[in-house]
Automatic annotation (TrEMBL):
Residues 151-216 form the HTH luxR-type domain. The keyword Transcription regulation applies. The keyword Transcription applies. This is Two component transcriptional regulator, LuxR family. Gene3D superfamilies: 3.40.50.2300. InterPro entries: CheY-like_superfamily (IPR011006), NreC/VraR/RcsB-like_REC (IPR058245), Sig_transdc_resp-reg_receiver (IPR001789), Tscrpt_reg_LuxR_C (IPR000792), WalR-like (IPR039420). GO terms for molecular function: DNA binding. The modification 4-aspartylphosphate is found at D57. It comes from Cellulomonas flavigena (strain ATCC 482 / DSM 20109 / BCRC 11376 / JCM 18109 / NBRC 3775 / NCIMB 8073 / NRS 134). The lineage of its organism: Bacteria, Bacillati, Actinomycetota, Actinomycetes, Micrococcales.
Length: 219
C-alpha cells in the first residue's frame, strides 16, 4: 500500500491556505498535517510534524519563504521537499528558490491538478516545473551562466531515447506526460531521467532544462 504524503502549507493568507488544503486533501494519497503563516512559523511546524513536502509561499512577514526554504533544506534532521508557490512570475525569486534547494516551482495561477502533481512528484524525489516557470528559469539561468562560460562544454553522449526524454524535460513536461508522449511506462521514463542526470553530472531536472537549452538539445 502506498504511504500517504504528509504536507505542510505555508502562506500568509489564511483563505488561500484553506483553498490549497481543500485541493490537496481531496486526493486520497495526500494528508495536510500543518499550516504556517510566516517562514519562522514554518520552521517550527515542519520540525513538529516532519512532513514529506512543504508548499512554500515567497513573500511573507517575519521571514520570507526563500530563507525558510534554505533553512529547511539545510537542516539534516528534516527530509521535506519544498515546492515553492508564488503569485509573481519573477525570475529572481525563481532562481533564488532553485539555489535554496526547492524542487518544485509553480505559480498560484496553476491548475489544481498541477499542484497535486507537484506535491506527489516532490514526495517521489522528482522535481516539477510549470511551463511558465520553466521559461523564466531557463532565461535567467542561461543568461547568468554565459559570461562565466563563453562556450558550452562538450556534449556527453546520450542514447536517442535519452535525448528524446531530455527534450521533453526541457519543455517542462512531468514523467507522466513524457510517458504518454513516448508511449512508454512512467517507470521507464524515471529510469531514463535518472540515467541522463547521472551521465551529465546534473543535480536535478532544473539543471537538465538549462543544460538542454545551452547545448541545443531541446528537440
Amino acid at each position: 500500500m502506498t504511504a500517504t504524503v504528509r504536507v505542510v502549507l505555508v502562506d500568509d493568507q489564511a483563505l488561500l491556505r484553506a483553498g490549497i488544503a481543500t485541493i490537496l486533501s481531496a486526493h486520497p494519497g495526500i494528508d495536510v498535517v500543518g499550516e504556517a503563516g510566516t517562514g519562522a512559523q514554518a520552521l517550527d511546524v515542519v520540525r513538529a510534524t516532519r512532513p514529506d513536502v512543504v508548499c512554500m509561499d515567497v513573500q511573507m512577514p517575519d521571514m520570507d519563504g526563500l530563507e525558510a526554504t534554505r533553512r529547511i533544506v539545510a537542516d539534516p534532521g528534516l527530509h521535506a521537499a519544498v515546492v515553492v508557490l508564488t503569485t509573481f512570475n519573477r525570475e529572481d525569486y525563481l532562481v533564488e528558490a532553485l539555489h535554496a534547494g526547492a524542487v518544485g516551482y509553480l505559480l498560484k495561477t496553476s491548475r489544481p491538478e498541477q499542484l497535486t502533481e507537484a506535491v506527489l512528484s516532490a514526495a517521489a524525489g522528482e522535481g516539477l516545473l510549470s511551463p511558465e516557470v520553466t521559461r523564466a528559469v531557463i532565461a535567467r539561468a542561461v543568461a547568468e551562466r554565459r559570461p562565466a562560460r563563453p562556450a558550452p562544454q562538450p556534449v556527453v553522449p546520450l542514447t536517442e531515447r535519452e535525448q528524446d526524454v531530455l527534450a521533453l524535460v526541457a519543455r517542462g513536461l512531468n514523467n507522466d506526460e513524457i510517458a504518454a508522449e513516448l508511449v512508454v511506462s512512467r517507470a521507464t521514463v524515471k529510469t531514463h531521467v535518472s540515467n541522463l542526470l547521472a551521465k551529465l553530472g546534473l543535480r536535478d531536472r532544473v539543471q537538465a532544462v538549462v543544460y538542454a537549452h545551452e547545448h541545443g538539445l531541446t528537440g
